[in-house]
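PROTEIN DESIGN WORKSHEET
SECTION A - STRUCTURE
LENGTH: 364
C-ALPHA CELLS:
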C-alpha cells in the first residue's frame, strides 16, 4: 500500500510530513534513518513501459496464454481500471474497466493475482475481490463484499482441480486519516481466508473460511498489503508497512501462525514479494524495498538468509512486482516485472539477476 495515502495525517503521532510520506521523529525508539543498504549489483532494465502518471499503477500479475503471448496486468488506482502490457516488449495492449461498483467496474483496484484463466482484482474502495475470466476479462463474481473492510493484497493457492484458496490482506484502521492502528486483539482479522470453487460451467462460488493475524507486539500486522506463499515450505511472507515498528516481512505458516521471526527491517516500505521457485523446495524470494532507486532484496527460499541486493538503472519507488519463472521468447530464464514510480512497468531478466548475484539452486 502507498503510505502517502494511509499516513497522510499522522500529525497526531508527532510525525513530520515529507513529500507526502510520514517520517518518524529521531529519538531512541525511532532512530535517525540509516544510510541506504549496500547494492551488490546494478542490472539494466530489459524494458520500461511508456509512463502513464495519471493511472497511479500499484500491483502486477502475469498471464501466459496457450498461444505463447505474455501479458502483464497492472492495477491503476486513480483511473479505476486495469492496464494490460505485452510482457516481451512493454507495449500497452489495452485497458479494462472504469470507475463504478457494477460487475466489470472498479473502485481503486489494488492487489491482483492470476490463476489459470481467472484474474482476481482486489478493490479497496468497493471492499471486495472481483473475478474475471481471461482473455476477454469477462466479469464472473464478487467475493468478500460482506466481510472485507479495507482490502489490499491477495495470494492464491490451488488445492485441487476447480478449487482454490485465496488469502486477502485487510488493513482496516481505527482512524484511517490519522493512521491509528486498531488495538492488538483486533489484529487477528488482518488476513481473510476464502475457499473458492469453480464448477464445470465456469461459475465461481466462494465462502469465508477463516481469518488470522498475530496479536503480539512482535508478530502483529499493523499496516499490511503484500502477501505471498510457498506451499512446499509451509510459508507465508506478509509485509508489515508500519515504519513506527519497522517495515519488514513477517514469517507465517500457511495456517496463519506467526513463527516468531521477521526479516531485517527494510530501509523504507516492504512492498511486493515474489517467490522464485527453482528446484523442488529450493529457490529465492525477491522482496521490494520502496526507495529510489528501488532495492530488490533476495532471500534464500528455505532459510530466508540474505542472498544479495540488486537495483535497476532507473526503477524507483516500486510498489508491486510479479515474477514469471517460465521461459518466454525474450526471457529464456524468466523475468521479474516491477512498478516504477507509480507510472511505468520495468522488466528484469532473471538470467541476469542470477548471474550478477551468483545464485545457485538451479536458478539460471
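SECTION B - SEQUENCE
RESIDUE ASSIGNMENT:
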Amino acid at each position: 500500500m502507498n503510505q502517502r495515502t494511509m499516513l497522510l495525517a499522522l500529525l497526531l503521532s508527532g510525525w513530520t510530513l515529507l513529500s507526502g510520506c510520514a517520517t518518524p521523529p529521531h529519538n531512541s525508539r525511532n532512530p535517525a534513518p540509516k544510510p541506504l543498504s549496500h547494492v551488490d549489483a546494478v542490472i539494466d532494465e530489459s524494458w520500461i513501459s511508456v509512463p502513464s502518471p495519471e493511472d497511479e499503477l500499484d500491483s502486477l500479475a502475469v498471464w501466459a496464454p496457450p498461444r505463447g503471448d505474455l501479458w502483464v496486468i497492472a492495477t491503476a488506482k486513480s483511473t479505476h481500471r486495469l492496464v494490460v502490457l505485452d510482457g516481451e516488449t512493454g507495449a500497452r495492449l489495452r485497458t479494462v474497466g472504469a470507475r463504478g461498483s457494477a460487475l466489470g467496474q472498479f473502485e481503486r483496484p489494488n492487489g491482483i493475482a492470476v490463476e489459470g484463466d481467472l484474474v482476481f482484482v482486489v478493490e479497496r474502495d468497493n471492499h471486495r475481490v472481483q473475478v474475471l475470466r481471461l482473455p476477454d476479462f469477462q466479469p464472473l463474481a464478487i467475493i468478500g463484499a460482506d466481510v472485507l473492510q479495507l482490502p489490499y493484497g491477495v495470494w492464491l493457492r490451488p488445492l485441487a482441480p476447480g478449487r482454490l484458496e485465496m488469502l486477502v490482506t485487510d488493513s482496516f484502521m481505527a482512524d484511517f486519516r490519522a493512521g491509528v492502528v486498531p488495538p492488538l486483539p483486533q489484529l487477528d482479522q488482518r488476513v481473510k481466508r476464502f475457499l473458492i470453487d469453480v464448477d464445470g460451467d465456469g461459475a465461481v462460488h466462494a465462502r469465508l473460511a477463516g481469518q488470522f493475524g498475530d496479536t503480539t507486539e512482535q508478530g502483529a500486522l499493523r499496516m499490511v498489503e503484500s502477501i505471498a506463499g510457498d506451499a512446499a515450505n509451509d510459508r507465508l511472507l506478509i509485509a508489515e508497512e508500519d515504519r513506527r515498528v519497522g517495515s519488514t516481512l513477517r514469517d507465517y505458516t500457511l495456517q496463519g501462525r506467526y513463527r516468531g521471526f521477521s526479516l531485517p527491517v527494510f530501509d523504507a516500505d516492504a512492498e511486493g514479494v515474489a517467490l522464485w521457485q527453482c528446484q523442488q523446495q529450493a529457490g529465492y524470494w525477491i522482496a521490494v524495498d520502496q526507495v529510489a532507486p528501488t532495492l530488490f532484496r533476495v532471500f534464500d527460499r528455505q532459510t530466508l538468509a540474505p542472498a544479495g541486493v540488486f537495483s535497476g538503472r532507473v526503477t524507483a519507488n516500486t510498489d508491486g512486482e510479479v515474477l514469471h519463472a517460465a521461459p518466454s521468447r525474450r526471457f529464456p530464464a524468466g523475468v521479474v516485472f516491477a512498478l516504477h514510480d507509480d507510472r511505468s512497468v520495468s522488466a528484469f531478466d532473471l538470467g541476469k539477476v542470477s548471474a550478477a548475484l551468483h545464485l545457485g539452486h538451479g536458478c539460471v
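SECTION C - NOTES
Residues 350-357 form the longest helix (8 residues).
The chain has one domain: 3-357.
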